[in-house]
Amino acid sequence: MEPILEISHLSITFIQYERGIHKRELPVIKDLSLQIEPGQIVAAVGASGSGKSLLAHSILGILPYNSRMSGTLKYDGRPLTQERAEALRGREIMLIPQGVTYLDPLMKIGPQIRKGKRDAGIRERCRAALKRYELKEEIEEQYPFEISGGMARRVLIASAVTESPRLIIADEPTPGLDKKAAGRILGHFRELAEEGAGILFITHDLELALTVADRVAVFYAGETIEEADASDFKDVEKLRHPFTKSLWHAMPEHGFHPIPGSQPYPGTMAKGCPFARQCRKCTILCREADQISLKPYRGGLVRCLYPGKEEAK
Ligand SMILES: Nc1ncnc2c1ncn2[C@@H]1O[C@H](COP(=O)(O)OP(=O)(O)OP(=O)(O)O)[C@@H](O)[C@H]1O
Ligand code: NI
């Protein structure tokens, strides 16, 4: 099937001026490629600071002014230009933002959900969306400061699904919600996918991602280091990258064995594989490599010189 969204070799850098004079480029996303087909839920899983929200913002065309982007984004087979992103967002492409601060504090909830639309069916669709997330109709007349954080989060989600979107970018949609509420939202994502929407589910929580995703893209320090079918996570031997394997071992159901160390910060990276410092299989070649590309391997994609190499015991 034709992908609804196709991201190829996306890189995002921030331009910073040190003491106002020296220009410095801070790479945060490097060579990121990802595809989403209609009907598919793709989870982008990565630690804090690995570039997940920036990925979301690049698709919506809302990157900060001091950033530069390279690579290509295609939506529905055609380049997703800034103009197209502006025309499609809020209509076909919906963002469920990470922060509830995206709600306009000076506007009542109802009009925010309806987004200025006045057609005959909009009130009905708005009510149905609120009901689905167990929000009372009265909330339409309230301002964001009058509702709780959990309610605000559900308002953001209701607002994104009111008009059947074709692509949903959900940036950490469930924090602050209990397991049941989170499960209901993810179940709704599945229904929307069955109706033909493509969904990018951004989260730091691999366990949660695996409850709903078809494909999982694992982020590490701004790069996708592996793309796998969700079913590959049933057996650690099916996974390809040593970081993905370490995430598997860190899951509570697999004994909760996290690896020591943390991801390098953007801008502090020397050459070589960014995972080298934490990798038990790292060789001199891994430290010296200029750029390791994402390659097909056993039905998935992996960015490693020695994918699937046996763990040294
Ligand atoms: N406007 C900016 N200027 C400079 N650096 C930025 C800017 N916005 C984000 N960054 C940096 O880019 C990196 C990626 O940020 P991003 O918000 O995409 O991470 P994330 O994976 O969404 O993290 P989290 O899980 O905490 O939401 C971070 O190191 C962040 O500090
Ligand atoms: Ni984020």
UniProtKB/TrEMBL annotation:
Reactions catalysed according to its record: Ni(2+)(out) + ATP + H2O = Ni(2+)(in) + ADP + phosphate + H(+)
Membrane topology term: Peripheral membrane protein
Location of this chain's protein in the cell: Cell membrane
Superkingdom: Bacteria
All copies of domain ABC transporter, residue ranges: 7-246
EC number: 7.2.2.11
Keyword 4Fe-4S assigned: no
Main location group: membrane
The keyword DNA-binding appears for this protein: no
InterPro entries, per the entry: AAA+_ATPase, ABC_Ni/Peptide_Import, ABC_transporter-like_ATP-bd, ABC_transporter-like_CS, Oligopep_ABC_C, P-loop_NTPase
Keywords annotated in UniProt: ATP-binding, Cell membrane, Ion transport, Membrane, Nickel, Nickel transport, Nucleotide-binding, Translocase, Transport
Family assignment from sequence similarity: Belongs to the ABC transporter superfamily.
Quaternary structure annotation from Swiss-Prot or TrEMBL: The complex is composed of two ATP-binding proteins (NikD and NikE), two transmembrane proteins (NikB and NikC) and a solute-binding protein (NikA).
Identification of the protein by name: Nickel import system ATP-binding protein NikD
Organism for this UniProt entry: Drancourtella massiliensis
